[in-house]
Amino acid sequence: MLQIALEAPGTFTATTAAPSPVANHGNALVRIHRIGVCGTDLHAYRGRQPFFNYPRVLGHELGVEVLEPGDPAAGLNKGDRCSVEPYLNCGRCIACRRGKPNCCTQLQVLGVHTDGGMQPLFSLPAHKLHPSEKLSYDQLALVETLGIGAHAVERAELETGDYVLVIGAGPIGLSVIQFAQAAGARVAVMDTSANRLEFCRQQMGIDLLIDALQPDADAQVLAHGGGEGPVAVFDATGNAASMTAAFKRPAAGGKLIFVGLVQGDLTFNDPEFHRKELTIFASRNARPETMRGIIAAIEAGKIDTSPWITHRLELADVPTKFAGIAADPTLLKAMITVGGGA
């Protein structure tokens, strides 16, 4: 069986001798049709991903077909199209017991802490599969990315009419934007890329756009809020300088939600932090009910994934073509095809 592994930063290797998995002990056997490439994969490729060891088989944004359901209790059928919830949690720790399996103390994320889906066949716990009779494999592979943004917006508890700022208009930032809009918020977007800002204007209807490189960027944030800061600021950059600067941007009594993750420490001015009585949230992964809700929202036409995919490649071409895609400044979301299927 073909399997692609990231042996070291910047180096993929392919083998055709990987053993084929089987369905057993509650695990389903699936055929992988689509693999989304996300920021985590790009950070790992560049050697900048926390909690990561090499070699590793990447791939956690997956659109799959059930070959053997494995666990009857999961309610799956052969041929079901599913999105994969790639967060393997223990079910016993304090986080799991309190309904937060996304931050399980023993969490393993497919393609990060344990091998993922850059292979045609895969075995995983059947209850981590979320089926849809309507969605394409492309759409199913995008559910996990959308889940990151949806969970961050859930954490913020936005109200209709809230003025919010999203910093970073990559795939994770775009998912935050979509769900902040769905919550009825008035969304401003800040980024250093003119192409990404224009994408937000054309594809997402955002007219409050801020070039982070401009000296008056913070003045623009206030101007868009009528002289007041955003009630919630989402930083989806994974950039330490941006995340540090984000502390000064929420309104008094506001919220700061870190969606991106950076290696190292962040610092902030404590008197200013206390003066505003800010609330800071980490946002990690997504919960099962969030992913099921996203599938329902896409099925109902409330979320449009069609503008997202900008690059495509075949699984066998990853070792030779991934570098070019990773270096392309127009990259938003690359989709890897594994076999056929729409």
Name its key features.
342 residues; alpha/beta; seven-stranded mixed β-sheet; six-stranded parallel β-sheet; 17 strands; 25% strand
Structural account:
By secondary structure, the chain is α/β, with parallel strands linked by helices. 28% of the residues lie in helices and 25% in strands. The chain contains ten helices and 17 strands. The strands form four sheets. Strands 3, 4, 5, 8, 9, 16 and 17 form a seven-stranded mixed β-sheet that branches. The chain has a six-stranded parallel β-sheet with strand order 12-11-10-13-14-15, sandwiched between helices. Helix 3 packs across helix 9 (288-299).
Short description:
This protein has 342 residues and is of the alpha/beta class. It has helices at residues 39-45, 94-97, 137-156, 171-182, 194-204, 217-224, 240-245, 270-276, 288-299, 318-327; strands at residues 3-8, 11-15, 27-37, 61-68, 81-84, 87-88, 108-109, 121-125, 129-131, 163-167, 186-191, 208-211, 232-235, 255-258, 279-282, 309-314, 333-337.
